[in-house]
Amino acid sequence: MKRSLPLKYKLTITSAVILTAMCVIFATSSIFSAHTLVDAARLVPSKPIADGMPVEPASGDALVELEAAQIATAPATAALGQFRGTAIGTMACLIVFGAALTYVFAAKTLKPLEKLTETVNNINIHNLDEKIPLPGTGDEVDRLTESFNDMTAKLNQAYQVQKNFSANAAHELRTPLALLQTQVDVFQMRAGRSVAEYNALLRSISESTDRLSHLVNDLLSFTTEQEVSMTEEVNLRELLEETAFELEESAAARQIQIEISGEGVVHGSDRLLQRAFYNLISNAIRYNVEGGKILVQISKERVTVADTGIGIPDEAKPNIFHSFFCVDKSRSRELGGSGLGLAIVKNIIEKHQGSICVRDYDPQGSIFVIDFPGEKTV
User: Fold this and answer.
1) 376 with 265: CB under 8 angstroms?
2) Would you give the end-to-end CA distance of the chain in angstroms?
3) Interatomic CA distance for residues 162 and 333, integer angstroms
4) What does the DSSP assignment read for 301-355?
5) Can you name the CATH fold of 140-223?
6) By CB atoms within 10 Å of each CB, which of 36, 119, 196, 237 scores lowest?
7) Which tens digit of pLDDT belongs to each residue from 311-353?
8) How far apart are CA 45 and CA 163, in angstroms?
9) Contacts by residues 100-103 (CB-CB < 8 Å, ≥ 24 positions apart)
């Protein structure tokens, strides 16, 4: 994109040119009128002087000279009046001309801004993805247009994410509710229901309500904006050991070992980081194999969580941090996943100015890598 003078310089230079032209014209007309006045004044005769004193003419001659002087000064008086009239008329014309010229230049300079204003007024949620064409002025109007296009692109992305999130949330909430309703309807249609059938129905209702409860909690965690204080010092080794202890029963049920090594300290929210690592290790347990391992390693500015589980297909890796995304929806529902766990993890890590990615773990499974830029390990 070509670069030119900023808008304020354009207006300044334009005004300076207009004022200069007005001053030059006014000065030229004044000088011309002044020359006329001087030339007329030269026609007035002076009285003869002898021995330093004026000579008194005869009474008749004095009258004649007085009349002649009055006749001689008449052109100077007329020239002075003409000078005044010319100066006032020229000044008035210059004011009108200068105002009109300034208006024309200002209107031409600000026309792209007016078009931008009209275009912005027509933008709504249905055309947020449409970009405003650049005026091509190369000044602040171009930069303002680019900034506005960036802003609408971010708004459109946020709007689409929120729209998809609402649709997915409604779907995820509707599924267990529909299952509950179906089970109750079928149960009511049966005659002579046994105690075992009652117990099976209650067990199914309990599982569905548990899933709904976890889903609602995840929704609240994901949608609630929480400010992170970056002054709190968090010992990663202690936090991860506490998290592993909370999940020890779930890991033991599947004979999965959790190993933690390394030391490190970051600054942020102990509670939020604990939630993030809880989700990561919980996922590592849920999608691991019987008798598998989870290896948590803390090193400089980095924490890795590796598992020997079923792994993640390459085509699914770019989407696993999106809300409600599941590699295998049927398996996720079977294992109690809501599709929000990793989205919550990513949200928390980014609040701490960090980043997270996933890779394949050798010989099998997945490894999640969390980086905290600028943090120093112990």
Assistant:
1) yes
2) 49
3) 23
4) TEEEEEE-SS---GGGGGGTTSTT--SSHHHHHHHT--S-HHHHHHHHHHHTT-E
5) Helix Hairpins (1.10.287)
6) 196
7) 888 888 888 887 666 665 544 444 455 567 788 888 888 888 8
8) 98
9) 101/18, 102/14, 102/15, 102/18
* Residues whose CB is less than 8 angstroms from the CB of residue 189 and which lie 6 or more positions away in sequence, other chains included: none
> Amino acid letter at 48?
P
Q: Give the pTM.
A: 0.53
pLDDT of 162-203, one tens digit each?
776 676 667 667 767 777 788 788 777 777 777 887 888 888
**Phi, psi dihedral angles at 204 (to 5 degrees):** -65, -40
Maximum separation of any 2 CA atoms in the chain, in Å: 157
User: Which numeric CATH code is attached to 233-371?
Assistant: 3.30.565.10
Write out the H or E segment, with its range, that includes residue 359.
Answer: strand 355-360
Report residue 139 as tokens: 């000044």
Q: Domain map of the chain by residue range? A: 7-121, 140-223, 233-371
**Residue 265: what are its φ and ψ, rounded to 5°?**
-135, 135
Q: What percent of the chain has pLDDT over 90?
A: 13
| pLDDT given for residue 335 in this prediction | 47
